[in-house]
Amino acid sequence: MKIGSIFNDVIKSFFSAPVTEKYPFEKPETAVRFRGKLSFDPSKCTGCNLCSKDCPANAIEIVIIDRAAKRFVARYNMDRCVYCAQCIQSCKFKCLDMPNDDWELAALNKDSFAVNYGKDEDIASFMERFAVSKAEPVQEG
Ligand code: SF4
Ligand code: SF4
User: Which listed residue, of 39, 101, 126, 128, carries a Cα 20 to 30 Å from 24's Cα?
Assistant: First the structure.
């Protein structure tokens, strides 16, 4: 490569915008089918647990507080999740989703990867009932 052509590139780069993304100052758009963090709608859930049975990574668990009153807590371990979306396929009631705009999941604390979904009172009741920390599996019986 000739020195002259390098010089041309240097001059050009002074007057052109950088190609790097401005993240985290500007959040880039993701593809429509990109799978972000799992979401859960307890109001549609039946507690059938198909999502949990079909999960290959043991990353989701549905705790039934009161089936008749539709009180459920979904425990999701996003650090175990392989984002395969099998749970979404298995759920016949469309309770689960992986929105493409919720993907900023990095954290410094391992506990942040264990998420409990549901109403606040149901999560509190479940934590008290099973006396578990956020990341432990539930021992029902
Ligand atoms: S996306 Fe796959 S790994 Fe993650 S919770 Fe659902 S079934 Fe399990
Ligand atoms: S498969 Fe759907 S309805 Fe069944 S427990 Fe899971 S989230 Fe609830």
Answer: 39
Measured distance CA(44)–CA(32) in Å, rounded: 24
- Residue 140 burial (CB count, 10 A): 9
8 Å CB contact between 62 and 74: yes
With left for phi above 0 and alpha for psi between -120 and 50, is residue 37 left, alpha or beta?
beta
Q: For residue 82, what is the domain's CATH number? A: 3.30.70.3270
Place of tokens 């799992």: 38
Closest residue by CA, ligand 2 atom 2: 91
Q: Which ligand is nearest to the CA of 95?
A: 2
Pocket lining: 34 vs ligand 1, CB cutoff 6 Å: no
Q: Judge whether 1 lies within some domain.
A: no
Number of independent structural domains in the chain: 1
Summarize pLDDT for 59-92 with one digit per residue, the tens: 999 999 999 999 999 999 999 999 999 999 999 9
Cα of 92 vs centre of ligand 1, distance in Å, is 15
